[in-house]
# Entry
Amino acid sequence: MAERVGGKILFGGGILASASVTLLMPVAARFSVYMLIALRVLQGTVEGVTFPSMHALLSCWIPPVERSRVVSFSYSGIQLGTVIAMPLSGVLCDHGFAGGWPSAFYVFGAAGCLWALAWFVLCHNTLSAHPRISFDERHYIELSMESSEISAKPPVPWTKIATSLPFWACAVAHLAFNWGYYTLLTCLPKYMHDVLQFDMTQNGILSGLPYFSAWLLMIGAGQLADWLRAPHRLQTGTVRKLFCSAGLLIPAVFLVAVGFLGSNRILIVSAVVLAVGFSALAWSGFGANHLDLAPVYAGTLMGLTNTLATIPGFLGP
# Structure
């Protein structure tokens, strides 16, 4: 859908719908647990459009030489949002209006709605649709792109995708990455509170700290990956494999170490911070790889791998 109607409407609409559902959560929680569960399912459904839409937009805008840094910088917003949301949620739960915890849903729901309005005004699907782009910038991007804008996309080569080993390698890496990511994202606050005995405000700050390290490393990794991909250095495939392997293996070592640290809160928090931080390297591997494999179908490829990679979102916890 994003490749045909444009990522602007799909991505902005998904965030707007998710933010609107967020505003309804406290009401649903008080009214019926089944209504709350239904809204959470609906929220997950509308959020499913985000990654494929982002990749569809990036495929129209980002020159090949800048893929690593732009993909990592764009998706680093996920980490930065978590850094802001977790501590602020803890403070709102302890000291917020409307009885504490509901204020977290109201604040972030309202922020998402305001963001969506700005997005619809400022974002454009293609170079030709952008009213404010300079001639020099447009000329540079058009010369750099592997595929120019075309009015009608060719049919998706489903058979070639299904039989492509590089595609399946990307999909498996995405699944493995998300297993650790979703497990920590959903369970880390509970672990901090129930096992390490941090209060809500401390919990929010410490749960957000790992994602701050991931934000920093993600941006730096993108710059380094594109530098390594320059002529006479390393091939793109080699760079993708290096960063993906490092982004999976290094966090695995630190997470295994947590199981042997007993109740030493300082060492445990340090290990988790390093695990989540180094996992950000993988975005310069599998995260940008969809654009390497098939720029025209980058949104479709991300949709497919992300569907598989969302399975750990319920199996992991």
The first helix runs from residue 2 to 5. The chain is about 75% helix and 0% strand. The chain has one domain: 2-148+158-315. The chain has a mean pLDDT of 90.
